[in-house]
Amino acid sequence: MTARIKGGQAATVVVPLLAAVMLVLTWGRDLPGVMVGIAGVVLAGAVLAAVHHAEVVAHKVGEPYGALVLAVAVTIIEVALIVTLMMDGGEKSATLARDTVFAAVMITLNGIVGLCLLLGALRHRVAVFNPEGTGAAFATVATLAGLSLVLPTFTEGSPGPAFTTGQLVFAAVASLALYGLFIATQTSRHRDYFLPVTPEGEVISSEDEHAEPPSSKVAWRSVGLLLVSLIAVVGLAKAVSPAIESGVSAAGLDASVVGIIIALLVLLPESIAAARAARRDRVQTSLNLGLGSAMASIGLTIPAVTIASIWMDGPLHLGLGGVHMVLLALTFVVGILTVIPGRSTPLQGGVHLSLLAAYIALAVSP
Questions:
Q1: Residue 221 structural domain
Q2: What is the CATH number of the domain that holds 236?
Q3: What are the residue boundaries of the Sodium/calcium exchanger membrane region domain, all occurrences included (predicted)?
Q4: Helix, strand, or coil here: 127?
Q5: Strand, coil or helix: what is 197?
Q6: Confidence of residue 285 (pLDDT cuts 50, 70, 90)
Q7: Are 108 and 291 in contact (CB under 8 A)?
Q8: Is the peptide bond before 64 cis (omega within 30 degrees of 0)?
Q9: Domain count along the chain
């Protein structure tokens, strides 16, 4: 048993380093089919390693800091990838930020949240969470999405679903301010609102966990390996994206399907970590991951693309179309009705997952 544990620990160290080497070898190259398959296997290993190290860090710092660390780390690297692709130019760069952010919002709010509510309710009959903290997170995400993805469709200062420079700067400042205010609320004065609760509504603090937290040395090592794993996940996702684009094109699917697939790959570490938390009856931790990722995707991407637009040629389209606005509105209406009771049956999880399925189906067949 001891040898098995040591072997597993060694794998969580070796795999991120192997993924980093694979990223260096494949970056900027056209990969043959065999290399795409190898890169995909290494990418999957990096995802599992990232989940392990995120859980180590979360156990050391406690909730809700653990969920915040993973959400922010993934989003910062994702934003860097978006900005890099936008700087490459081309026709797709005008809508790249919008499509990527919206895909992340739909996957997190309906995919991660729905899956975790379903898992938690199936395993424990009812999934229990804190409505105060979850409601505050939903309200923040709804405001950020409305300001950044809906308003540009209706403004008149710039042609197309785009902001003027002044409007874009306002959206960036507002996004950062709201995100910063939420983090302050989550981690200081109202931290209890974002901790897991028992069916009776009692807060489960990190001190209630039976396992001893890791040492500072182990935690800092996991922080470093977590960052290496996440960089490798995003980088390898970009490396295999040409093969994905070719497959999507050969299948006659819309180009937006590529963005969904890449977003699913990038968000895999958070999805697996959230599902594991839900199975341990820590549904609030799962919701912190899902909602925190959606919030970070908007709150960090919009300021980043605002700065990048200084060097970009061509328009920056942020406004959603009618179909996507309907899906977004349905997501928030359903989310509000899910949050209010503070508990969920499998039905609510299924409803959120059906909205994600509708989004993917309409992307495949607009």
A1: 2-364
A2: 1.20.1420.30
A3: 35-187, 222-363
A4: strand
A5: strand
A6: confident
A7: yes
A8: yes
A9: 1
